[in-house]
Amino acid sequence: MSYPMVSSGNPLQDICTYGPQIAKVPNRQHYVVTYGLTESFDEVLIRDPLGEFTSLSQVTPNGLFAGPEFTFSEPITGLRFDYHSPVDFYITDPSGRRAGLDHLSGITFHEIPGARYDRDTSYENGITGEQDDDPSKSLEIFGIPDAEYRLTVVGTANGTYTGEVRAFDVNRDISVALTRDVPTEPGLVHQYTVTFAKSNGATTRVAGAFDGGGQRPRDVNRFLTYLNISASQTTVGAASSGFHLAVMYGSETTASSFEATLNGANVTSLFHPTPAGAENVALPLQRGRNVIILAINGIVVNRTATDRDRLVFIAP
Fold this sequence. Notes:
Blueprint: H1 11-18, E1 21-24, E2 31-37, E3 44-47, E4 55-56, E5 60-61, E6 64-66, E7 78-83, E8 87-92, E9 98-102, E10 107-110, E11 115-119, E12 137-142, E13 147-155, E14 159-168, E15 174-184, E16 189-196, E17 205-208, H2 218-221, E18 224-226, E19 233-235, E20 243-249, E21 253-262, E22 265-266, E23 278-283, E24 288-300, E25 303-315
Parallel strand pairs: 19-25
Antiparallel strand pairs: 1-2, 1-5, 2-3, 3-4, 6-11, 7-12, 7-14, 8-9, 8-13, 9-10, 11-12, 13-16, 14-15, 16-17, 18-20, 20-23, 21-22, 21-24, 24-25
C-alpha cells in the first residue's frame, strides 16, 4: 500500500488525484476505503468492511502519512511506536537519519527508508463526536538493523503521556515496552534510547538517553536513566526556580530500595519510583554547586545489583 506524501485534507480531491484512500465515517470510529464518486458527484463510493454502506455524503481523511512505497520480504522485523496525547515525537537512527514529527520546528522527517509516521488528525471522541485536540500518533520503522535508536518526545500541552514500543523479531514474536503517565508540558523535550535486536524482540529496552554513568555492566546502569540531561554535570537556570529532573526507573528495579540525597540531606520522599515508570522531580537547588546521589536496587540474572548515580547541578 502506498499513500500520498501529505494528504490535502480534501478526501474528494485526494480520490481524484491519488486513487483509493483510507477515510473515516464522521462521528464513528469506523474506517472505509474510498474508490470513486457517484455520477452526480455528491457522494463518495466506498468499500465498507462491515458491509453497512456503499456510499457516503461525507468522509473524513484518516490522517497525514509520510513515506515512500517499499517492499518487505518475510519475516518483517522492526519497531512500532505509539504515543498518546499530548506529545509529538521522532526517531533518529545510528546514521543520523530521522523519521517522525519534530513539534518544535514543525518538520515531518521521512529520512529512514521504510518508515511511516501517522498522526491521526481526524480522531473524534466516540461519545461526544468532538474533535480530539491531542490525537494518537504512531511510527513504524521496519527492515532496520540491530542498533540503538534515539527517540525524542516533545510535549504539546500540559498533561501526561503514555508510550508503547513494539518490537517485531525474526520469530514473528511481538514484544511490548511501556512508559506510563510521564508528565509533560508545551515544548518540554524528553530523550530516550531504544535498543533493538531482531533475533529476540524481548531484549528490546527503552531507557532515558543518559544512564548517569557509574555501574557496569550496562544493564545495571539502566536501573536509573534520565530524559532531560546529557551529562553528569549540568548548568541550570537560577537556583530560586529549581530544576525538574526527569528520571526513568528500569523495569527490573525494586521501588522500596530507592534512596536519594541532595547536598547531604535525605530527599528520598521527593521521588515516587515505579518499575518502568518515569517522573519529573522538582529539585530545590541552592546557588552554586549541588550534588545529588541516587541509588536503587534491581534484579539481573537472578542476583540483586545496585545502580548508584552522582549528578551535579550548577545554579548561578
